[in-house]
Structure prediction request, 808 residues.
Amino acid sequence: MSKKQDKTQKAVIADLALDFSSGFIYEPAPESSSHVKLEKQYELFIDGKWVAPIDKKYFDTTSPATEQVISRIAEASAADVDKAVKAARNAYENVWSKISAKERGKYLFRIARIIQEKAREFAVIETMEGGKPIRESRDIDVPLAANHFFYYAGWADKLEYAFPGKKANSIGVAGQIIPWNFPLLMAAWKIAPALAAGNTVVLKPAETTSLTALKLAEVFQEAGLPNGVVNIVTGAGATGAAIVNHPDVNKIAFTGSTDVGKIIQKAIAGTNKKLTLELGGKAANIIFEDAAIDQAVEGIVNGIFFNQGHVCCAGSRLFVQEGVADKVIKKLKDRMKSLIVGDPMDKNTDIGAINSKEQLKKINDYLKIGVNEGAEIFQPACTFPKKGYFCAPTLFLHTSQSHRIVQEEIFGPVLAIQTFRTVEEVLEKANNTPYGLSAGVWTDKGSKIFNMTTKLKAGVVWANTYNKFDPASPFGGYKESGMGREGGLHGLLPYLSLS
Amino acid sequence: MAATKTTTKPSTNGTAVNAETATKNERLAVLKTYKIYINGQFPRTESGRYYTIKLSNKEQVNVCLSSRKDFRNSVSAAREAQEKWAGKTAYNRSQILYRIAEMLETRSAQFTEELVNQGATAAAAKEEISIAVDRLIYYAGWCDKFNQVFSSVNHVSSSHFNFSSLEPTGVVAAIADQNSRLLGLVSIIAPVIASGNTIIGLASTQFPLSAITFAEVLNTSDLPAGVVNILTGEASELLAPFTTHMDVNAVYLNTDNQQEKVTAETNAALNVKRVKVEASLDWTLPKNEDPYRILDYTEVKTTWHPIGI
Prediction:
């Protein structure tokens, strides 16, 4: 390409860039937390009651945006977990498996309704403790959590239609361990199908985000859910291990890292416990030349910067077809400059706080690794609040398949970009990973969409959209991204035994 | 062994026989070498090892004692074949499974003799073959139907079209029922390949002959090379490679041994393999064939697309 041509092309790209500059200034728009009721200290929720942990141990939970302590949380020991499992077993044998499926469903409908009534309170607490933007907890996490209970409520008395030729039976006590990225939503994903299928539950929230699960326990009390049907035990890894290893638990459902998932799969070997794993991912988001570029750019941003990139299905590997690469990257950089990073309680905030100090360190380590591997880093200028854990939206250019930032799950707002020429090439690269949770495809050609969505080895494929979730939509991965599905009809199966 | 002095005892199924003194003018039988089945070919085990099976008619056969390397070669072949097999139309896979049934049926006399030589009664042998043929036809019929029954269109609360369908898990390693001569292996292979998976099956150590002869059936049924690979050998030795290989997506193990179950399930965690361990069972029962055995080796894929202009 001659210098003149090069100049012309640059001029064209400049023309195509999105101009976000304006005199418009966002005034602070903080959500109030005045209507939120939080206790100074939370006990364990066992057999319908609040119970102090046997060891009398507690830990602080802090806001990642302010580093202030919000509350104190009980730490459940193996003995506490045992109490919770006994309560769940008792409730299963004597109450939950005895009442009619219709009544079971009605409890779930009630729970959904109360969550809707308390939606604002849930959203504020979720954001205070987890760091995600209030806009996301208000518009996505909490409404979806209510919707999950509502969706599965209706399944409770219709299980005979779900799996033709078989009788669907409940399995007993389900032990559930959930992560910190969608605390309330993950609790709903786990508890709703388990209860609809007739099981009882012992659930452990992540140690940095216990509060909305504990508030959910208050909802269960308010709904009159029989004692012991759901038990919430708070704590860290040791508490989770006590659930996994408890001999009277019939099913383990875990969402979290692939490393821990493998430990769990190993731990229950030979026990006949059923297992669902929702593990890590490193999703390919693929932009073809014939895509609607401005929509694709929004899709890329939503794919990787939604929830600070703390999303197992985040579109963290971007593949752009060569002909539009300059244009897409230019527009993407411009769009990134317009993202507001900061106080998650502010309704204008796009990217909130990183969930914990440890996670921020992990992300920053990967930023160094990326630079050291020779990739070119881009971050827009951001002003962070004085306290709290924040990370600028980041992209890496000139990455290759062998880079660690391309292979490993970072779980932060970090995008690794590669270009490609042909369908075959991008399929090969996209599938060349031990993960297989999700993928994205952007093109206006229908036949190309189906060619790609058929050949991508991933449990969820978004075409011309990204990061959409729904209770009716099964979610879960291929390969090392896990086994079993959550959501939809298929999400019932892991909580049933068929005969 | 001196050819002129060896047996002439006719052997209709080609089973190898012991050397016997020949009487004059009798024809020397041509013995069959039982080899393993990898990538549509019949190699000997690369290890050069064998073990000997004594048959009820006093004959004996040398059988390949397959190695870890044989298994690795099989996985390569199975991986290579998988996408193409899954890419065939369901109707085509269905016809190929039906063709396998046809080929098995036409060779039922040979299989009967082989099963009897491995200790089955004639009646039991006939029953086993009939059920094996019918089971293949049962799963042949499912190839283009299981997705209709178990897929879904999901009404999401946004303007998206959303559907979930089933895809094959990938490469499956299966240690078949060690007490079954033929039906245990056939009952695992058929549902696994019906959806587009490929498989490496380990025959019963004690009764390997019909498994190898079944490979000959597969080889004449338009089944692409590598879709089914069959090894013979020691289950206890091959349990580790079958369950630890990082390019295997799912494992089936039929055993009553708790320690083997623990080993298989522990090893499977290395790369989050789907693992099914089943106690030995009566494969002749109709309840042991159902579409849920196809589902065991499938993945639910959910696809979203916006609805709008």
Remarks:
- Chain A touches chain B through 45 residues (CB under 8 Å).
- Chain A has a mean pLDDT of 96.
- Chain A has two domains: 41-279+478-498, 281-463.
- Residues 134-153 of chain A form the longest helix (20 residues).
